[in-house]
Every structure is written in structure tokens, then in C-alpha cells.
């Protein structure tokens, strides 16, 4: 157990995939937290659950559609009743799509916003409801380069991430005085994950072994950044933190 962590506290990770979500789950479990990993199909987290339970961690996999208000509310109520108080909540769901403007349909544009922004609003609002009762908590949002810069082909994705950043900023200003720390982590980098390796292989024929060391941001580094922000004293809170490898052009 690391210093400063309340016994029995829960970290809830929504949109917890096999990269960032899994790394954050492991990091907070090492800090003494019960872990709830939530994604649309909980069965996809079974490997992570088995791994962490074998190491003695308490971890639960939950199915949720973050775009559905009733689903989100039911998930929070169940965790609070059956597992413990949610001390930390991460919204990590993404909608990274790259399409030329004229190929960006109304449906695609709406779905990107619905998951990346609206889902974040629902999850953040519900977390705040419980945290305000206890007058403490940390709410984390995963951002991207697209949160501050709209690139070619990213009209849908960037608009959704810009909007999520605005939600997080508004929440931080309202909830900070109530002792709830809201953090937006801007990941201005390609994340060192299996998905990125496959994408590079398909686009450029680059194998993972050919990628220069430290040119991608490792998921453990992202998890450490979230842990650092969560552990900050309230007289020196960070709302937005940008993260990139040293070789990244910015």
C-alpha cells in the first residue's frame, strides 16, 4: 500500500481497453485501489482480470455503453453499493476516425461526438454526483493532439475531442472548490500499443522492432502521469498536462 491511499477506495476506468486502460488499472492497483474496468463488452477484459487477480488484486470487469445515460447511472450505483466508494474515475473512451471531409457522413460525425464527448459528460457528471457527497475525488479524462489541433481528415474526431476538453475544463472550474480534482491529460503522441504497431505495419511496413526507442509514448508512462496528478496536494493541482516523447515535433 502506498502512502496517501484510502483503504477500500475504487478506481473506475471507463473505456478501459488493452493499452492505456490496462496500464492505469495496474498502476492504481499497485497503489492499493480496487479496480473496475468498464467497456462495452466486459469479456474483452477477461485476460487483464485473470492476470491482476493472479497477482492478488481486486478487479471487476463491467459491461457498459457510455453513451446511454441509464447504463452509466446503473453502473455507478452498482459499484457504489456492491464494491466501494469511487475515489477515482477515468474516462478513456475514444473515437479516432480519419476521413476526408466529403466522406465524413452525418452518422460518423455524430457517433464520434456521442462517444468521445457525450459519453465523457455522462460519466463525469455521474462521478461528480457521488464525489460531491464525500467532498473528495479525482476525475480523469484522456485527451489527444486532436483536443487542441484539428488536422486534415479529423473533422469528426477533433471536434469531439475539443468538446470533451471544454467539458473537462468547465467541470474543473466548478468542482475544484468542492475538493474534486479534474484532470485532462493531453497525449500528443502515438501510444506504444499493439493497435499502433498494426497501423504502422499496414501503412508503412514498419515492424515494431524497427521503431526507434522512446519514439512512442508507453502506456506505463501515461499511467504514471495519471497517478502523479491524482497524488497532487490540493494547493498545487494540475488541470491539464501534455505528454509526448522527446523526439516528437510539436
From TrEMBL:
<dbReference type="InterPro" id="IPR036291">
    <property type="entry name" value="NAD(P)-bd_dom_sf"/>
</dbReference>
<dbReference type="Pfam" id="PF00106">
    <property type="entry name" value="adh_short"/>
</dbReference>
<dbReference type="InterPro" id="IPR002347">
    <property type="entry name" value="SDR_fam"/>
</dbReference>
<protein>
    <submittedName>
        <fullName>SDR family NAD(P)-dependent oxidoreductase</fullName>
    </submittedName>
</protein>
Amino acid at each position: 500500500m502506498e502512502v496517501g491511499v484510502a483503504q477500500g477506495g475504487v478506481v473506475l476506468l471507463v473505456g478501459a481497453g488493452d493499452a492505456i486502460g490496462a496500464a492505469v488499472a495496474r498502476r492504481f492497483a499497485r497503489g492499493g485501489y480496487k479496480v473496475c474496468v468498464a467497456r462495452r463488452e466486459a469479456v474483452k477484459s477477461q485476460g487483464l482480470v485473470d492476470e491482476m487477480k493472479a497477482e492478488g488484486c481486486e478487479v471487476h470487469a463491467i459491461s457498459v455503453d457510455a453513451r446511454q445515460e441509464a447504463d452509466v447511472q446503473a453502473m455507478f450505483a452498482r459499484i457504489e453499493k456492491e464494491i466501494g466508494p469511487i475515489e477515482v474515475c477515468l474516462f478513456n473512451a475514444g473515437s479516432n476516425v480519419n476521413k476526408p471531409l466529403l466522406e465524413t457522413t452525418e452518422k460518423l460525425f455524430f457517433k464520434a461526438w456521442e462517444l468521445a464527448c457525450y459519453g465523457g459528460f455522462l460519466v463525469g457528471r455521474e462521478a461528480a454526483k457521488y464525489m460531491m457527497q464525500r467532498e473528495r475525488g479525482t476525475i480523469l479524462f484522456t485527451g489527444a493532439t486532436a483536443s487542441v489541433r484539428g488536422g486534415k481528415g479529423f473533422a469528426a474526431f477533433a471536434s469531439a475531442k475539443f468538446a470533451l476538453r471544454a467539458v473537462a475544463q468547465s467541470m474543473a472550474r466548478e468542482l475544484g472548490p468542492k475538493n474534486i480534482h479534474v484532470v485532462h491529460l493531453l497525449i500528443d503522441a502515438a501510444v506504444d500499443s499493439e493497435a499502433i504497431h498494426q497501423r504502422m505495419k499496414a501503412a508503412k511496413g514498419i515492424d515494431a522492432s524497427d521503431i526507434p526507442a522512446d519514439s512512442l509514448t508507453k502506456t506505463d508512462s501515461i499511467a504514471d502521469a495519471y497517478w502523479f496528478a491524482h497524488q497532487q496536494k490540493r494547493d498545487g493541482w494540475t488541470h491539464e498536462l501534455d505528454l509526448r516523447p522527446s523526439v516528437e515535433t510539436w
